[in-house]
Design brief:
Elements: H1 2-32, H2 39-57, H3 59-86, H4 90-112, E1 128-135, E2 139-144, H5 149-154, E3 156-161, H6 162-184, H7 186-196, H8 198-203, H9 208-233, H10 240-255, H11 260-275, H12 284-290, H13 302-305, H14 309-312, H15 316-327
Antiparallel strand pairs: 1-2, 1-3
Helix pairs in contact: 1-6, 1-9, 1-10, 1-11, 2-3, 2-4, 2-9, 2-10, 3-4, 3-9, 6-7, 6-9, 10-11, 10-15
Length: 338
């Protein structure tokens, strides 16, 4: 039971990190119709920028300044490069963002090398948020923080790291902030007006190209914020962009391209799909044997039947995306046709 609860929380934490990433991508697409292939690269850039700034100023200032710096770089890219190809259609936009991802990767490798950098969490985020102690006599006990060595010596202890708890808090705060910004503020009204009626918004005196630039920069800043937290929680290395690069597009497709609510639901769903099966060793062969069917190496399809759920867990989100594209191409909450 304790391991199930920890896996459930790990899945929710991973899903919320995916939401932090996919929220920026969804915001950019819903406003500009651009699928930013370099979005995961801005995630990586946020982690490295925070690593550098943390060495100078400390982690907490870096947590604020790194997303702002990466967001400014994103806005500069939109102003100087992306805007120039926007009039030529979606293919040039995809190509230029795809090329930017390789440029960022090569620059990071030139400056920091191909191995990981020692970007550790600050003392306030080290340790455990709580520990579940599973004992034969006292049952399941919740201990805030780290349990004592004596407690863990007499029982099984499952710890939930503070960094993952911090990740969940920041992601939920981001969700509330985006909702309030887009629905309860004048800036949000201008953004929505520029999305649905750009000519009318421009006629009312609003600079629509500047709004689009700020939206693109804000989306990159959200990705960088996720990179800062992901960097201290997992590992800061050049491969971190490739690790999340494909899965965030799965989140956007499953949730519905352009839907923030869909991105949130799909992120949680995929986070759980990726995490919960990792502790399940059962396979189709196991189920068949429990049902009284004989499964041997001579059985047709045996190499597939013997694969455990934990082994196929990495491909489950992609199978879900295929099913969504077949039965509901717009996604769970999608409304756009393009």
């Amino acid at each position: 039971m304790d391991q199930l609860l920890i896996n459930l929380l790990n899945g929710l934490a991973s899903g919320l990190l995916l939401f932090m990433l996919s929220a920026g991508l969804t915001l950019i697409f819903s406003m500009m119709g651009v699928l930013n292939f370099a979005h995961a690269s801005f995630y990586m850039l946020g982690a490295y920028a925070a690593y550098v700034l943390a060495g100078w100023l400390g982690f907490w200032p870096a947590l604020l300044l790194a997303p702002l710096a990466v967001g400014a770089l994103g806005a500069l890219f939109e102003r100087t490069a992306l805007r120039r190809v926007h009039k030529f259609g979606h293919v040039p936009e995809l190509l230029i963002t795809f090329g930017l991802s390789y440029v960022i990767l090569e620059l990071v490798q030139l400056v920091f090398g191909r191995t990981s950098v020692p970007f550790s969490p600050p003392p306030a985020l080290q340790g455990s948020a709580f520990t579940l102690v599973q004992g034969a006599a006292q049952g399941l006990t919740l201990v805030w923080g780290d349990a004592s060595p004596a407690q863990c010596a007499a029982a099984a202890c499952s710890k939930f790291p503070l960094t993952r708890a911090f990740m969940m808090v920041v992601a939920l705060a981001m969700l509330v902030g985006l909702w309030a910004l887009l629905t309860r503020s004048r800036i949000g009204l201008v953004i929505q007006a520029a999305l649905t009626h750009p000519e009318m918004a421009e006629a009312l005196g609003h600079n629509v190209p500047r709004v689009l630039m700020l939206v693109f920069g804000s989306g990159c800043a959200l990705a960088a914020l996720a990179g800062v937290i992901g960097g201290i929680t997992f590992v800061t290395e050049p491969a971190m962009a490739a690790i999340v690069g494909s899965i965030i597009f799965v989140v956007v497709v499953v949730g519905g391209v352009g839907s923030l609510a869909g991105a949130f639901v799909a992120s949680l769903l995929i986070g759980l799909i990726q995490t919960l099966p990792l502790t399940v060793d059962a396979s189709l062969a196991t189920l068949a044997q429990r049902a009284g069917l004989a499964v041997t190496p001579a059985t047709p399809g045996y190499p597939l039947l013997k694969l455990s759920l934990a082994q196929v867990a990495p491909i489950l989100p992609y199978l879900l995306m295929v099913l969504i594209l077949i039965f509901r191409p717009k996604g769970l909450f999608g409304t756009r046709d393009d």
